Amino acid sequence: QFVLMPLSIDINSVARTSQCDLRSLSITQGIVGNAGGAEMVVHVPDRSWRPKAANVVVIATSSDAVTHFGGVVTDVEEEMAGLNALRYRVTCKDYTYLFDRMMVTENYLSTGPTANLNVDTILAQGVTTYTTGFSTGTIQAGLGTVAQQRYDYVYPSDVGRGLAEQVGALFWIDSTKGVHLQASGLAAAPIATVDLDSYSTSANWSSFVLRESAQNIKNRVVLQGYKVKSTVKFANAFAGDGAQRFFPLGYEASGLSTGEFLATLNTITLTPLTDNIDASPTTAAGSTSSIYVCFVNQGVRTAFAPSSTEILSLSYNYMKDSGFQSDDASAQAEMIAREGGDGVHMYMVNDPSLGNFASNDDIAIAKGQAITQRYGRPLLQGEFDSVQQGWAPGQSLTVSSTDRMGGFTKQFYVYQIEKTLMNHPGTTGTPTWNYHIATGESFVPL
Question: What pTM was computed for the model?
Answer without folding.
Answer: 0.78
